[in-house]
């Protein structure tokens, strides 16, 4: 999948900061970097801007009541899940890791609780079995643009009616830790594939390649598929067809990155590291 224009802009800049910030600055739009949006000085700046509405997307701060009231039409957030499911910092990752078939984007009114405000609009989409978190996030960003425009139209016309979330259906999607990417080869092949795709590009599906000669190479899997047929050998063991045994099922590795090396195809890894039947991948720390 091709990078989004925002991702391309950030890469081209080669600097720290938000891609939106770079594009806005390049278009002559005034940009203010806010370390604490709830600081009285920051709230004064929001009020002075005389904006009709505040829209937040992928913003790591809570907007408290004073900040939200800086715009007469209030503040809404774009969240990458179908709330109340997957509240939190990593909804795209956990949707894949947990094996969801669908996810989406929600526009909702900001309140003091995390991702808990009344819902204005939602749009769903299927999750493909070959899709990484990075690719799904790019697709959801495209959907979010349309949702944002429709929400602005509803707010400006006075027709926005927020639907309260059902707290009984709420689930959490906490920020990923590096240890969340550790592959458990005793898990079934579908679970392993979902972990690999759901943690790419960070922290990635982490494992250790152990050759029969004792050599060990830390690796990160980026892409995989569930292979047909039964596992041949113990979990993590490479069989004669080049598949990796899980428990149950087996995995067809597609892309892998050895420590300190570039991302490469499974075929290149097999050739470069002379992978043979009986070599194994183990869990990190095992």
Number of strands: 10
Q: Return the CATH class of the largest domain.
A: Alpha Beta
Radius of gyration: 22 Å
* CATH T-level topology of the largest domain: Rossmann fold
Strand fraction equals 15-25%
What is the CATH homology-level superfamily of the largest domain?
A: Formyl transferase, N-terminal domain
The string of secondary-structure elements, in order, is: HHHEHEHEEHHEEEEEHE
The SS-based structural class is: alpha+beta
- Shape descriptor reads elongated
Could you give a short account of the major beta sheet? 6 strands, antiparallel
Residue share in helix:
25-40%
Helical run tally:
8
Q: What is the CATH-assigned architecture of the largest domain? A: 3-Layer(aba) Sandwich
Low-confidence stretches: 1-15
Count of separate structural domains: 2
The end-to-end span amounts to: 35 Å
Q: Averaging pLDDT over every residue, what do you get?
A: 92
Summarize the structure.
The chain is of the alpha+beta class and 286 residues long. The protein has two domains: 32-169, 3-Layer(aba) Sandwich (Rossmann fold), CATH 3.40.50; 178-282, Formyl transferase, C-terminal domain (Methionyl-tRNA Fmet Formyltransferase, Chain A, domain 2).
General description of the model:
With 286 residues, the protein is α+β, with helices and mostly antiparallel strands. The protein folds into two domains: 138 residues, 3-Layer(aba) Sandwich (Rossmann fold); 105 residues, Roll (Methionyl-tRNA Fmet Formyltransferase, Chain A, domain 2). The chain contains eight helices and ten strands. The chain is elongated. It starts with a helix and ends with a strand. The relative contact order is 0.10.
């Amino acid at each position: 999948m091709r990078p989004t224009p925002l991702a391309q802009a950030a890469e081209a800049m080669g600097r720290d900061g938000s891609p939106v910030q770079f594009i806005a600055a390049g278009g002559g739009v005034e940009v203010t970097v806010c370390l604490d949006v709830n600081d009285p000085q920051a709230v004064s700046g929001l009020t002075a801007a005389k904006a009709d509405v505040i829209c937040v997307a992928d913003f790591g701060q809570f907007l408290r009541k004073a900040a939200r009231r800086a715009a007469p039409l209030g503040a809404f957030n774009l969240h990458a899940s179908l709330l109340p499911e997957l509240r939190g910092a990593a909804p795209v990752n956990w949707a894949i890791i947990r094996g969801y078939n669908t996810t989406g984007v929600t526009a909702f009114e900001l309140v003091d609780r995390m991702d808990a405000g009344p819902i204005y609009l939602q749009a769903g989409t299927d999750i493909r079995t070959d899709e990484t978190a990075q690719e799904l996030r790019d697709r959801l960003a495209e959907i979010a643009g349309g949702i944002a425009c429709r929400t602005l139209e509803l707010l400006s016309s006075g027709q926005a009616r927020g639907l309260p979330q059902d707290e009984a259906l709420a689930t959490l999607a906490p920020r990923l830790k590096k240890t969340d990417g550790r592959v458990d080869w005793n898990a079934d092949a579908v679970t392993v594939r979902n972990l690999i795709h759901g943690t790419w590009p960070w922290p990635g599906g982490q494992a250790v390649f152990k050759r029969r000669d004792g050599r060990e190479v830390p690796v990160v899997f980026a892409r995989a598929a569930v292979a047909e047929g039964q596992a041949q050998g113990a979990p993590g063991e490479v069989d004669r067809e080049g598949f990796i045994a899980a428990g149950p099922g087996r995995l067809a590795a597609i892309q892998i990155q050895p420590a300190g090396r570039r991302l490469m195809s499974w075929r290149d890894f097999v050739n470069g590291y002379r992978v043979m039947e009986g070599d194994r991948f183990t869990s990190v720390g095992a």
